[in-house]
Inverse folding.
């Protein structure tokens, strides 16, 4: 896996995260904030395409979990927002009818759509937290694919965004909205460091092959039987004369 070149995909992902971070800052601009937020949302979805392209080569479960759960979280959040909006409009319109205020059961029923939308948004937040956790796991487990400082920044960035998702879940506390917004900005710009992976060659660990010392063949043994050069009779090596033919032995 370390030999697979995915620098371009992660670099493009980092560039889009930078744009998302900039748009997140600019949402405070009056009137234009909603439009800029939508632009950031679009670039965030486009960044998921870069993750898909990278994972086509890497085939990592953590990357696929990040992408799939983030998409599901977006879908749930859209549904939850629509349900909450409809519920708010329905509840507000009923509260304008003063006769309706005396019908307590009906009044409670009018808040049910808002409650359902709130629960759906909680589920969306939990899914988003799990998505960012998967991305953090990927960067922690595959640091060799990136320069050390980039891997650290990317891991910290995805963890910041995970915490930001938690702050959004707790948005009913009001102050957590500001905390989550700040954490999002920090997280997106840390992930933007992935832009600097262009041209980086992932390190590959080459297993060392133990060197085997050549073994010299054993020297032939000088021990053993000799033979007479004249008749070929077997000798013990102690004789001076061949016992068969009487030849003098050297």
């Amino acid at each position: 896996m370390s030999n697979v070149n995915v620098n371009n995909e992660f670099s493009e992902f980092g560039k889009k995260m930078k744009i998302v971070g900039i748009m997140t800052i600019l949402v405070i601009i009056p009137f234009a904030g909603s439009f800029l937020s939508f632009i950031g949302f679009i670039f965030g979805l486009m960044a998921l395409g870069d993750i898909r392209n990278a994972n086509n080569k890497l085939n990592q479960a953590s990357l696929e979990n990040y992408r799939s759960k983030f998409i599901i979280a977006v879908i749930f959040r859209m549904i939850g927002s629509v349900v909450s909006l409809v519920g708010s409009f329905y509840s507000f319109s009923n509260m304008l009818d003063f006769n309706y205020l005396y019908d307590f059961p009906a009044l409670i029923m009018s808040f049910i759509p808002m409650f359902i939308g709130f629960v759906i948004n909680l589920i969306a937040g939990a899914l988003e937290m799990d998505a960012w956790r998967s991305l953090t796991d990927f960067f922690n487990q595959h640091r060799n694919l990136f320069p050390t400082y980039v891997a650290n920044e990317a891991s910290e960035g995805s963890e910041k965004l995970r915490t930001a998702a938690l702050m959004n879940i707790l948005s009913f506390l009001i102050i957590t909205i500001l905390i989550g917004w700040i954490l999002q900005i920090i997280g997106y710009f840390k992930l933007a460091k992935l832009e600097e992976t262009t041209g980086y060659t992932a390190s590959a660990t080459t297993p060392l092959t133990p060197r085997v010392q050549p073994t010299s063949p054993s020297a032939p043994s000088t021990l053993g039987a000799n033979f007479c050069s004249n008749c070929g009779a077997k000798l013990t090596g102690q004789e001076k004369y061949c016992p068969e033919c009487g030849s003098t032995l050297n």
About this structure: Residues 7-197 form one domain. Confidence is low (pLDDT under 50) at residues 204-224. Strands lie at 226-227, 234-235. The chain is about 65% helix and 0% strand.
